Amino acid sequence: MGRRLNLKRYGIPTSIWARLFIAVAVLEVFAIICIQGYVIKRTVDIYKKGTESQWGFGVQSGSTSMSITQQSFIVYDVIFIVAQLFLLMLCWEAVAHKNTIQIIAATLFNVMCLVYSLIQYTTFYIHPSQSAGIFQNDNDMRILQITTMAVYSLCSIAFAMLTWELYQLFGWKTYKKLGANLALRRAYKWHQILLTLLKLDIFFFISYSVQLATLVLRVSDPETWVQIGVVIPGSVLFLVLSFWALKVENKRMMIAVIVCLGLSPAYFIYKLVRMNVGIDRNKDPYLDSRKYLTFFIVVTLALILVTVYVSIQCFRNFGTGLKEAIADYDARKAQLKANKALLVNAGVDQSSTTNPDYEYTEVHERFVLE
Q1: φ, ψ of residue 67 in degrees (nearest 5)
Q2: What pLDDT, in 10s, does the model give residues 316-334?
């Protein structure tokens, strides 16, 4: 019983489907971190006899001006690990708030991780890049990468099945919300979609920028430090302001968000063209990272275009009463928690909270997104 109460304290519903969803996410995080941790160790072992690279480790190529470094592969492995922690956050938050949109987004994000693992395996063994050729005869590395793809495949299937169950569960058990106003419910749907998209935007843009700055740009290149010191923190700050503009329904800030996001695809299209047009094959800085960067550019570009469209829908819903409705819900939920705390302190029997339906009937959720 104590364990159930602890899980509820952290926002996990008593539903078996919700807890299975979190369990799959936790197991996947554990498996991927263990696998990628060993992959990093194997990479370091292979390169440990190399000369120093521009960032302080790795192997310098003597035949070209490129650096063949272990850092390249370690960055990809670290992205796997960070992606899993991000996915766990998405899953935990989605289940805790019974947010079906974010549950679906977490499932799709896991599929993207599977695609990324397929790209890595292709780069290593099907169409190996110049520096990945060193792993051709390493069976341990091949097994580890196949295992990574298998874990993502199985978990993607599990997430898809559980997402359907959770959609049905939350759709039926969270019906009493802030009134039956269909306009407000539609507005809240767009609100939740935009919140989820902004979270994904932050992850993919930072991941792309880190790869670009560490794997392509050189230490001596001013663009490297502009990317690390200005572009990355500036973009994060901009996206945080986007959250704020959405929450307080600030029209001027939201217009700025829509305009800036609407202009940003030009940059990504430019980088995509630059990676593939007019490149000297003997001095190709994108030789080992082109597939990875292309994946992140395409995904980020698609997310930005969708984010612009959803931002416009949210802007149109400003002033319709959604902000006040959410504030009213938050106030009622805080009051409910305060009342429960008073009852506990007074020694009143709280056995009613053991009812499996309690968390869905007494704590009024905001809306049902159908």
Answers
A1: -105, 120
A2: 988 887 778 777 767 776 7
